[in-house]
Amino acid sequence: MRIRISALTDAGKERENNEDALLFCPDLQQQEWLDQGTDNYISLGELGSLLLVADGMGGANAGEVASALAIDTVKDYFQSQRVQAAISQEMTAEMLQRAVVMADEAINQHIMKNPETKGMGTTIVICWLLGQTAHIAWCGDSRCYVYNPISGLRRLTTDHSYVQELINKGELTEEEAFTHPESNLITRGLGDFQTYPTADIVTYDFEPNDIILVCSDGLCGYCPDTDIENVMKDHYTDVKDCCQGLMTLALDAGGCDNICLLLASIIGDDDEQPSKVKFAPIKKFFYNLKNS
């Protein structure tokens, strides 16, 4: 497999401070960490690629510090020798879980040393593209999706949030949760939370023409999945255009929160770019009242 990664973050239209953070490593063997997109497709290396997004919270209590600490801690933990050992021992899930715990510890140690930052915290999503599988760990309501032009958009993560708990109980629909006044309340995260930072972990076997999207709720909290899917359908052949299209979508929806986007376009070893898919035209049907 070969991948190309695009990344964007924006403070949005209503906030001066950007508490979101992102980072990625296209090839964990090389340990080159970036926060800007790559220009070309590269082979997915033996140790894979890592995508990180964190959505800090706490406002004046330094949410941007929490997200940066989380990202930097995971980066330092995913050194090539440790990654190689985890792969050889088939302990990828354990490594992801440990990385999340260490990020939480780093944030809480900072709070202890700097009491004025009490209340800060962050979500996190870690997406490890390894072989032909995405290993995804997360705490909070930042999300990971996959888009394929044939099968459409699929959400791979499930929010740790108050409204998601109501959905699980059958007390809210997805549509009602989207506009619920407490849709921003999360039940799990890193930092100043009462619960142990246990990450949920899922795997997804990706294939050529897939685009993995990792984002903060500055996108998915204000833009329905159907709108996200439509943008990706229009731009899936160019991941940079796709990333910009999603950013524009979030800003046009009001830009009420910080926005963080990471997209990884996946193609086959022998491909130069994503394959174009010819979509069937939408047929229009007319009902003849005279023959009813």
Keywords:
alpha+beta; 6-stranded antiparallel β-sheet; 7-stranded antiparallel β-sheet; disordered C terminus; globular; 292 residues
| Content-based structural category | alpha+beta
Order of helices and strands: EEEEHHHEEEEEHHEEEHHHE
Total helical segments: 8
Please give the radius of gyration in angstroms: 20 Å
CA-based shape: globular
Poorly predicted regions: 282-292
**How many DSSP E strands?**
13
End-to-end C-alpha gap? 55 Å
- Range of helix content: 25-40%
SS strand fraction? 25-35%
Most strands sheet: 7 strands, antiparallel
Averaged pLDDT:
92
Structure in words:
The chain has 292 residues and is an alpha+beta fold. It has 8 helices and 13 strands. Strands 2, 4, 5, 6, 7, 10 and 11 form a 7-stranded antiparallel sheet that branches. A 6-stranded antiparallel sheet has the order 3-1-13-12-8-9. Helix 1 packs across helix 3 (92-113) and helix 7 (225-235) runs antiparallel to helix 8.
